[in-house]
Design brief:
8 strands; globular; single chain
């Protein structure tokens, strides 16, 4: 049975419809009104081998912060719904993705315990018309929505475009590892449960 889920988040600041297909590489259709953000989400879907549909609007004329954070929250909630309480999957994944002089490392655990360790520094200039520090808010929202632990580390970097893109690609690869089925319907835990 194909694993997928859809979430709709509607607030005074944003309106987001998001569908995540765990076991399909298509469709991928992303429209947030922020082209660089769309590109990063497409890179995540491509390297995770996921189908991803996002139709999102928000008060980006005020600041992109609300939209970027809320897409993270919504994607996290969709991940959690699609994966049946994180039972019967590898649960953890880790990947190092190089882009020229940049190396991003992401490691995650689908454990129902939200935690983000973010060891990334950006310069004082925009990337793709966005403050790159907003991508920490995206991943913080995602971590909270999914209840996962995520470490993002940057052993080497050349420019901030490569930094952001390699993080999204590494995250897609790490998540692909973590969602790999085990062939059982029990959580991979010595406790026998993934409750917080």
């Amino acid at each position: 049975m194909a694993r997928s889920a859809t979430q709709h988040r509607n607030t005074l600041e944003t309106d987001i419809k998001l569908t995540w297909h765990v076991d399909a590489t298509a469709p991928v259709s992303i429209n947030t009104g922020l082209p660089f953000f769309d590109h990063m989400l497409t890179a995540f879907a491509c390297h995770g081998q996921f189908g991803l549909e996002i139709d999102a609007t928000g008060d980006i004329d005020v600041d992109p912060h609300h939209l970027i954070e809320d897409v993270g929250i919504t994607l996290g909630q969709t991940i959690k719904e699609a994966l049946n309480g994180y039972k019967g999957i590898q649960r953890a994944g880790c990947f190092s993705f190089p882009m020229d002089g940049t190396l991003a490392v992401t490691a995650l655990d689908l454990c129902n315990r939200p935690n983000l360790v973010w060891k990334v520094q950006f310069g004082n200039f925009p990337v793709g018309g966005l403050d790159p520090n907003l991508f920490r808010e995206f991943f913080k929202g995602l971590v909270d929505g999914a209840g996962l632990t995520l470490h993002v580390h940057l052993p080497a970097q050349d420019n901030d475009h490569h930094v952001v893109e390699s993080i999204f690609k590494a995250f897609g690869r790490s998540l692909q590892q973590a969602v790999t089925p085990l062939g059982s319907d029990t959580p991979l835990s010595t406790k026998g449960t993934l409750s917080a």
